[in-house]
Specification:
The protein has helices at residues 10-31, 41-68, 73-80, 84-91. It has 97 residues and is mainly α. It has one domain (6-91). The chain is flat. The two termini are 13 Å apart.
């Protein structure tokens, strides 16, 4: 689900985003210095999950910037190590109302 799919006000969205950033900063601060070797396995899995979510947010932003800059889906797919169709399906903005 993307922020534009939610039925919340701009102020609520800003508050939610701020909370997410605070939570991410907390976990990044606590776990970033670790390579995971000294963490219990379930904590390590959570660390990996948060890292993956952060990378996905970065990818969404980068794909959006690339599209606004005129990059084709083919070039975006190559940069991501996938096909144009896979990149388009995953990162194309939804047209659903």
């Amino acid at each position: 689900m993307r922020p534009e799919d939610l039925r919340i006000t701009a102020a609520e969205l800003a508050e939610l985003e701020a909370y997410g950033e605070r939570a991410a900063a907390y976990f990044e601060r606590d776990f970033a210095a670790s390579d995971g070797a000294d963490l219990p396995p379930l904590v390590e899995l959570r660390r990996v999950r948060y890292g993956r979510a952060r990378l996905e947010r970065d990818a969404v932003e980068a794909v959006g910037a690339a599209r606004r800059d005129g990059a084709s889906w083919h070039k975006i797919g190559l940069a991501l190590g996938t096909t144009a169709e896979a990149a388009r399906r995953r990162y194309r903005p939804s047209t659903a109302a």
